[in-house]
Each structure stands twice: as C-alpha cells, then as structure tokens.
Amino acid sequence: MPRREDLKTILILGSGPIVIGQACEFDYSGVQACKSLRDDGYRIVLINSNPATIMTDPEMADRTYIEPITPDVVAKIIDKERPDAILPTLGGQTALNCAMQLHDQGVLDKFDVEMIGATPEAIIKAEGRQEFREAMDNIGLNTCRSKLAYSMSEARTALDEIGLPCVIRPGFTMGGSGGGIAYNLEEFEDICTRGLQMSLNSELLIEESIVGWKEYELEVVRDKNDNCIIVCSIENFDAMGVHTGDSITVAPAQTLSDREYQLLRDASLATLREIGVDTGGSNVQFAINPRDGRMIVIEMNPRVSRSSALASKATGFPIAKIAAKLAVGYTLDELDNDITKITKACFEPSIDYCVVKFPRWAFEKFPTADSVLTTQMKSVGECMAIGGTFKEAMQKALRGLETGRNGYGNVPGKPNCSDDDFDVESIRPHLATPRADRIDWIRSAMLVGMSVEDIFEYTNIDPWFLDQLEELAEHEKLLIAAGANGVAGFDETLMRQTKQLGFSDRQIAAACPVGTTEWDVRVHRKTLGVVPAFKRVDTCAGEYPSQTPYLYSTYSGTEDEVDTAPTAGAVAPTNNANNKKRVVVLGGGPNRIGQGIEFDYCCVHAALALRELGYETVMVNSNPETVSTDFDTSDMLFFEPLTHEDVMNVIDRIEPHGVIVQFGGQTPLNLARGLQDHGAPLVGTSVDSIETAEDRDLFSKLITKIDIDQPPNGLAATPEQAIAAAATIGYPVLVRPSFVLGGRAMEIVYDQTTLADYLERNPHFSKEAPLLVDKFLDSAIEVDVDAISDGNEVIIGGVMEHIEEAGIHSGDSSCSLPPYTLSDGIIKEICEKTRQLAKALNVVGLMNVQWAVRGAKVFIIEANPRASRTVPFVSKAIGQPLAKMAARIMLGETIKDVGVIERLEPPFFSVKAPVFPFGKFQGVDTVLGPEMKSTGEVMGIDARFGSAFAKAMVGAGNTLPRDGKVFVSVRDEDKRLILPLIDRMAGLGYEIVATGGTARALKNAGINVKKVFKIHEGRPHVLDLIVNRECRLIINTPSGRRERSDDRLIRSSAASHRIPCITTLAAASATIQGMEMWMKQPLEVTPIQDHHKAFAVEAIEE
Predict the structure, then answer these.
(1) Which strands sit side by side in the sheet containing 1010-1011, from one edge to the other?
(2) pLDDT digits (tens, 9 = 90+) for 788-802
(3) DSSP secondary-structure letter at 291?
(4) How far is residue 987 from each of residues 983, 991, 1039, 1075, measured CA to CA in Å?
(5) What does the pLDDT look like over 959-1016, one tens digit per residue?
(6) Model pTM?
(7) Residue 718, by phi and psi: left (phi above 0), alpha (psi -120 to 50) or beta?
(8) Stretch 511-528: mean pLDDT, rounded?
(9) What DSSP string describes 215-256?
(10) Cα 477 vs. chain centroid, distance in angstroms?
(11) C-alpha to C-alpha distance for 124 and 171, rounded to whole angstroms
C-alpha cells in the first residue's frame, strides 16, 4: 500500500536531554525518522530540548522547536503548526509519556491530531502493568506472579501475597527508574515510596523475583498487513536482576536451542498482535528459568527502544527508518533493504558474526553511590564490538570501553585484583554481587582455579559464556610461554590463533619482557602476514552482497571486503568508485560523563562537510547509540575500538589522505601522537600545538610569552611537591591530574589537611603526568569562548558567560550566549586575547578557551585546540555550523572560503542548562564542583534572558513553581547577598521558610519568613518538609571549608524527591529572573528557523 496522502504535516517528539536510561540512541532514531519522512514529502515539525543532537539541526525538519518537551509547550506548538499527526514512538519514554498526557488531556482530539506509530490503546495495553498482564493471559503467555499497587498500603498488601525477595517496577518509566529488588522490608518500603513518586500514573507492579533466570529480548517490526519480522535476538550475558541496559549483551542469542528460539519468536509475534502495534518497531523481553525451562514475558516496549539502536547497528537493518515509513502507511514488502539494495525490508535479517555490547559506568564520579547493579539502570554509555566469534567480539568490546582495559585482562596470567584478594574466599563475594568490575573478578576466579560450575553457582551466568572466557584465560598460558622469548617467540600459527581469540597487541606485549611495546608487536605481526580482514555487515549472512561499506575487522577468515567487487548482476558498490581521496574521522567512543553526544555531533558534521567537498568520508567509532555510526552518515563506516592498534589497522588498509582527531573529544586526541609517529596523515591543528595546550608547563610558558594573565600555578610529581606548591601559591587551590576530561579528580582544597586527604585518594601522578596546582579564583565569573581559525584569521564563534561562579565545571554550569552581565570592554578583551592565543598555537580548526573574570581582570584557565562540548549549542545560537566549517578549513579552505560570520551579540538569548543523574544514585550530594557530573544538557531560547533561563530549567526537569513554599539556607558569607533575591521572591507571593541563621537575616531585612528546625533541633524539621513535598524549591549554598551534614542531607533528599535545589547565588539570581518572567506572561514558542531569520534581517539593516 502506498504512503498516506491524507497526512501533510507530522509532529515528531524528541527525547530531550541525555539521561541514564535514555541517551543519544533516540537522536539516532529521530534523525532517521526526519530524513525518511521528509524524503517522502511530508512537512516535519520537530520538538526537542537538546541542542547537542543532530535532529535539532535546522536542516533536519521544516520547523524545529528547541523547547521543553512538556504537554503545555507541545500543545502550544500543535496550536501554532496544526499537524495532522504526532509520531511519539521514536523519542523514548519522554515522547511516549508526553503524547499520552496530550491524549488524556484532550489536546489531540481538540486539534484533530492523529497519533501514529502506536495507538493510545496499544500504548496503554503495553505500558499499563495490569493491562499487559491481562493481554498476555489472553494469548496463553506466562508473566511473573504479580500484584498492582497505587499506594503504600496496597503495596504492603501485595507483598503479603508475593513475598520477599520481590521486584518493584513503576509504570510509565524508563531505565527501570524508581524500581529495584527488595530483599527485606526496609528496602521494600524505600523502593516503593520512590517508585510511586517517579511513576507517571502512580502505579507499581510488585512481582515475584526471578533473579538468576536467563534474559533475552527480540526486536520486532510489524506492519498493518500483519507482515512481521524478527530483526535481531539479543541475549543478556548477566542473569535477571541486572537491568538490560547495565548487562553485557550479545547478538544474536548464543545459548538458545532452535526450539527455544522458535518459541520466543512465536511469542514475540503473538505479543505484537495482541497489543496491537502494527505500524512500527517494538521490543519484547523474556526470561527463561535455566533449571526447568519455564518461559515468561517480562515486558514490551511499544516503541523504538534503547536496544533498537543496538539491533540496527548489529544487523544493518535501520529499525527507526522502517518504523517511520510504516507509521505513514507503507508495508514491509514495499520498502527496500538499504544494505543489499536488492532485497525488501520484509526479508528477515540473519548475521554470521557476533556482536557484544558492554556498558560503561561513571561510579568514579559518585563515590558514595551504591555501585551494585540492579533493575534500575546506572550506566551512562556503551561500547559495541563486532567479531567473528564471541571471544573476539568480547575482547574488542573490553578494550573499546576506554577504561584502561586492553581486553579480557591486561597482563597475561596476572589477576585484576591485588595479591591480598587473590584467593577463592575473597573472590566469591565479588562474583555473587554484580558490579561494574565483575568481569575482572570472573577472570581472577579462573586464574585462581575456580571451575566454570563454581563460577556459575555464584553468578548465574550461562556456562557457555563462562566456557568461552575460560578458553581465553587458558590461552594466556601460551602467551606467557611464548612471550618469554619476546615477540620472536610468536610464530605465524600462534600469532594468528592469538589474534583470532581477540587478544590485542598490548596484551601480547605485556607477556613479553619489560620494555616491549604494542608497536613492536605490530611490526612483528605484520612481518608474519597476520593482519585483520575487514568484513561487511550485510543483514543476510552473506546470501546477498552488501552494497554499503559498513565494516568490522576480524582475524576469523582472510577474505577482505573493503574493495570486493560485487557478484555478477549486482549493482556496483560505491566504495571509492571515483577514486576520491579518503578522509578518516575518529569518533568519541562510548558516552561517558565529560565526553558525550556533543562530540558525536561534531564528527557527523565533519563527515557531512567533507562529503560536500568531494572527499570520501570514513568514520571509525565504537558507539552504537550515535548518528555517526549510522550506515549512511559517511561513505565508509568501520565499527572498531578507538585504540592505536585498531585505528592503525584501518589506516593501513585504506591509506587515507587525512585523519581528523580533533572532533571526538579526548579519546582521539590521546591517540594523536602515536598515530602521527607511525605514519597517519593527521590534518588540522598539529599534534605539537595540541600537546602545548595540554602540557601545563609548555602552556604556561606560552601564555607568559604572549603576556596573558593566568592564576598562579605549579606542577607536582610527588605529594611533597604538591604541598610545597600549594603553600607557595596560597590556599584555596584547585588541584587536578594532567590529561583528563570532564574534570576527573579535580577538587578545590582550602588547607593542607584537605590537600593531604586528596593526595591519599589520588596518588597516580608523576613527572610524565604531573598534578596541576592552580590558585582558585573565588567569586570569579567563568567565560567559555569557541573560536575557529584557518591559521591566519580567527573568528569568535560565541562568548558564553557561566551563570554559576568559578569552581563549578564548565559542563555542569548553566551559561548564557550572549553574556548577560559582562561589560562590552571585558568581552572585547576576552575576544582579542582568544585571537592572540589561537595564532600563537597555530590553530587550524576549532578552539575552546576558558577564562575567569575577577573584578576588571581577565585570567586564562585553559585552552583546548579541538572541538568542545559547547560547539553544538553555539552553532544553534548563532545559526552557523561551526564543526562543518572547521572541517573544511582543516582540509585547506580559509575563513573567507567557508563564510564564517562573527555574531557576538545575537538578537536573542540562548541558555544552556545541565541535566544530572542524581535521581539514579540515592543519597549522593548534589552540590556541584570542579568535577563534571552532568550527563546531558538542554537549551532555552528567548528574546529575554529570564525567559530563556526558565525554558532551560523546565527542559532540564527543574519545573519552576508558580506558588508554594521556598526553603532557604545559605552560608554566612551569602546571607547579605541573598536578601534582595529573596525579597523579590516574597514579592511574587511565595512563602519563605528558612533555618535559624538565614531566617534571622531575612527577618531583620523586613522579609516575611517562617523559621523551620534544622535536623538536630526538633520536629518537624527541614527534611520533613521535603519528604512531605511541602516546599517546592530549595536554595542551599554549601560551605566550602566545613560542610554541614544537614546541608548534604537536604540536597540528597531534594534529589530523591525531585524538588529543584539551587546551590549557588548566581543560579538563584537567574532562577528568580526566570520565575518573574514565568509569572508575568506565558512562555512563547518559536522555531529555530525563525530565530535564525533575525540574522538575515540584521545583515540587511547593516
């Protein structure tokens, strides 16, 4: 059936900021939907609050609203744009929940908007716990024994029937938010209370525990003619009890018999038909008891899910694109397979390789958080690897995580634990409790002699997987024996066997005498003729030739498909058909705090720009969530770990004209020197300039030479040198390691005792990687500047004033473009010094510089001659794609050629606000500091700063209250400064409550305030107000030197109960401006295209 002609305008809902449980896989889905539907001639209206996404580029939709995804805002857009349909199934749980709220409120009926992709009835049937259970009963499928509860009393009644342990699952949530496994009554009460607060419909499913069962999921697509296909089967390495987003997963499923697979397949299709999803993709999750074979259905997502991106990248089947097409009337048999070009989308994918996804966590950022993995997702990113076997793929995934692992173990024969823990009794507890490092303890258990059967008893990980890992541990013995003779000890047979098992050159070097490097192994390996073959992902296990150069490396087989000619009669592959010069773009690897989707955005823009210039673009990345690893973003895609070995294998094979390392964050920069030294043709800013900016000693000398002020600073290779440097500089000082991203281990210390504690917790620094000690500029204003240079001319892309004061990581601070308090003179000085620095560093491409303004003096903090995380935000704020322009400059064009225009004062304010994962880590302090903790960001745009800030706050989930109580407790030095701010709040009609000292200061200033007890003073105290949700907003500034435990409890409790908590005076001031605007008039919604038209008007007027 052809596409629907009755639909003209379609509103696509995005997923908002990157949060745990909902990351950039939905940018990938949204981009596919936008491109697919626009190609069909539909007018696309898009709403998403995340500026770091490709989908919010103005070219992706006809009307792009960078606005909060809330029902009232979306209703305004519907009223303004009058779409015929709304597509909510590609924006995660955020989009689905928002669409259902609009349906329930009657907005869709009022404006005659049809929900496509999934009907409201299907969504309720799949998402509602009771409805889903009844649906499964109707088709004879088992679910867990369970009871529903809508209150704590009902939850306790349910527990009497279900018993402990039990699993609590809140309705209409994502990433298992609010849920967990309760083993005792105290845990049950805590999880249920939290789950009721987080559920959209205040619903809890309390079900029997099936911890230890095997978990599978199937990605399924169905059209309205009941054509159904299984795109991919995925098996969890970890047993039930660990959220699938936190589990290692493997595709296709490895341990199912053919009969079991057919049972799951039939059950998946029956589930889709019963729920009624007939125009898109879905995900069905199952559990199987390994002891008796009992199968149950866990849940179904009536939308494109997190796993859909993984399944798409694993098979080459673009689920989101196909789902969008089905939503507008197409059927599977009408749509082409983009990989083969000659089969249809109803041809069920089949793969002849193995895919492993490994999660990446950020517990180092939250040391007080519970690191046990449960049914609530905690990982912040993931790495995917493709290999000929599970063993090869697993080793590639482990080294692709960029967590210091070189594979399954770094040094052959040496455990991953200390000698004190190297015994069975010490290892067993680490096997029984799933944490981020359990894979290392499994290896240690094998090295100490534990059998697969023993390890299974403690982990419930299928013995087949454990057998595979045991083969790797056994092979280490051969490496040790051969390595005793150096690299020469490896003949061709052993080297090939070792590489087929996925061992890296670094692991082999570690088995050789001290001083042997991976480069030595590489030379010897290539001399032996042991090099990887590159195979294509073809969706059909080689039955039809792949016409899309989507490749992975493997040592399992020798046939290389980089330039393989097609079989007779097939369409000729486009790969380098015109002998174009190839340029490699290195991606950013797995998402993590400090390096996220912003860098993938830059990589995508680089690929698009170079393609426009006539180059053949080559992407190397390992992140399955991203647009950069979409098969049609670049001309060639290599799904590989970002290590020296894996990247050089690609470079050796395709012999590129250039390699770009400046767009993927710190990951490719860390590879730059090694790549260049071994023949990679890097383009853009030189490695020497990059190292000058990153080496504190070299950078300090350069800054002194060009007469730019910097805070007093020093370097320390030992603890004694650090203490001496701090004493010379004077406290407070900012201390941090060299060569880190996201402010890792960066802290402000106020005295020698605090510094000694820091040095004990962070002992890993040396002469090669010294500790940096800087004078901390208290009360300074931080400023970010993005600039672009062609080596001669420098253009300032944007000047951003941080809303929080100095001391908070730039990634965690809200910021405004243009600056909202800085004088013209200060801005001019910052711009001139940025230009001066770019020329001194010989920057060719992008550069980010961070400045601190204290009084009338400007100090430099640091410079990064690469793309920064603010590039997407600035690009959207000024209407110019800076990353695209920089890529063209790096390949030889000039500023004049690309047409960059300096726009220091846009006619509107753009505010970037961070989003934090505190709700996932119960009990952690929410106070911000120099180490980055945010997972994502949102953008607010308006003609007025206050309104732009209010939009950003709402988009970040910090709903600004229109009435109610505001709790205030600030440190002594802030009391005088807070008075005019609180006076304005009181004037807006808010009820002010405060603890003793703050209440006294407010009362003395004539502000009506009610005193509330501190925690130790009596009841009801401040925590009671928070738990009872009596206060709607909290302002609590921490004391830098001696933080009170009361304050930490207030902030962590506020995070648990989802009450906005402001921890700086600057943020309080901006928030009050936003609330004033919010109260005076409703927020307006304007598409980014209209904002950008203002620049054209300005140009005409000039």
Answers:
(1) 1010-1011, 991-994, 965-969, 1031-1036, 1061-1062
(2) 999 999 999 999 999
(3) T
(4) 6, 10, 28, 12
(5) 788 889 999 998 888 899 899 999 999 999 999 999 888 999 999 999 999 999 888 7
(6) 0.92
(7) beta
(8) 97
(9) EEEEEEEE-TT--EEEEEEEEESSPTTS-TTTS-EEES-SS-
(10) 38
(11) 10
